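Minutes, project huddle
Topic: does the predicted pose make sense with fe (ii) ion bound?
PN asked that the exact inputs be recorded in the minutes so nobody has to dig through chat later. Recorded below.
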Amino acid sequence: MVNVDNLIDLENGVQSKKVFWDQEVYDQEIERIFGRSWLFLTHESQIPEPGDFFTTFMGEDPVIVARQMDGTIKAFINSCTHRGNQICHADSGNTRSFNCSYHGWSFGIDGELAGVPLEAEVYFNKLDKAAHRLPEVTQVDNYRGFIFGCFDAEAPPLQEWLGEMAWYMDSWADTGGGAELIGTPMKTILKCNWKVPSENFIGDGYHVGWTHSAALQMIGGPLSALSGNGELPPMDDVGAQVTTRHGHGFGVIWELGHAIHRDPGDYIQFQQQTLPEVIEKKGEWRGKFYTGHWNSGLFPNCSFLYGTNTFKIWHPKGPHEIEVWTWTLVQKNMSPELKREIKKQAIQTFGTAGTLESDDGENMETCTRTNRGFQTRRGTMNASMGMEGDGRHPELPGVLGASFIGETSYRGFYRFWGEIMKAESWADIHKNDDTWVDNWLGKDAVSGMAARNIA
Ligand code: FES
Ligand SMILES: [Fe+2]
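Predicted holo structure (tokens), as shared on screen:
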């Protein structure tokens, strides 16, 4: 086992560069993180009808997600129980069965082994078909249409896993008709460790004005002021960062949900029309979050930008490579024209060849590749920005950072990363459920700049 305490220093917000490179770290992540966490599979809107299926990955395990005849959703390992061939090669579709291309075994959409060629002639009817169904993903559940799976029976229910992050997400996932993903996902390969984009999306407001300097000027609008870190307003007024139990988190810029849209009129109008509903159902605070722009992460490898409408999963493919899958995130009650416009915008910014996507890609690859060097890998990385501002807020859950540009959510991500990497089982993780904030901030009821400044 890897000595996690040698890899992260929680007191100082420091991580070893080995976390982006070492095979033994990665192997432990696959077993202890991807084997125990709830992982995003797909959205209900992607498989609306019985027989609809979608193929994806949980960690490196190939998985089929299928809508059953009774409308429920099941997920299976996408590997034949005969000789291990991949059963389903399609990305998505509708079917009554999955037929293996090697020797022709066929499986129902419920995972049962339904047909075996020459069963009587070569197996003499002795094959126990019930014992050869496709292994089922242990837990599958749905948060407001977003379907997740988990291999660990001991993991808490999905609602508890998302916890206070869902409280924040409800501001838009439970209003405006709810959220949905549109389009088949765009897919790209990036030669980087899966945590580089995960930490970037969850907590990196710092890179926006610098990495995306040229793109922000081209896009125009209110965020262009950030270009080159040029005209920065007082940071405490701009937004905040939030991190919640289990390593989820986000950064928000108040009132700029529409900021990346080239022609935001219809989007602003939709938000203004739906804001009273949000405030009525969820209260004033979540109304404030509703009109903000979010850079966000669901631990471990699902990220999204609410406002810029991109929704991503970073599938790990070894320690130094990922497959990036990108959907467009919209609200169901938006008009078809607005959804189309948002999709176009999301492709132009964070699609495969998007302006902002390509800015980020090179940094993510070289943040990984430099660590090929043995001496380089003995070094550390710093995520201490704004540490003294981490605190509680009297009305908002989780740990908050007072400034939009800070690394509070990085720290939350790596705190839980260390916890789950060290834990023998979920029982160990549960021991910290009630104390994780105290362990981080001390026992003060309210502390830090967060409480003072986020108002
Ligand atoms: S490997 Fe699938 S039928 Fe033989
Ligand atoms: Fe970026």
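Observations noted during the meeting:
- Residues 80, 82-83, 85, 100, 102-105 surround FE2/S2 (inorganic) cluster (ligand 1) (CB under 6 Å).
- The domain at 164-453 is CATH 3.90.380.10 (Naphthalene 1,2-dioxygenase Alpha Subunit; Chain A, domain 1).
No decisions taken; revisit at the next huddle.
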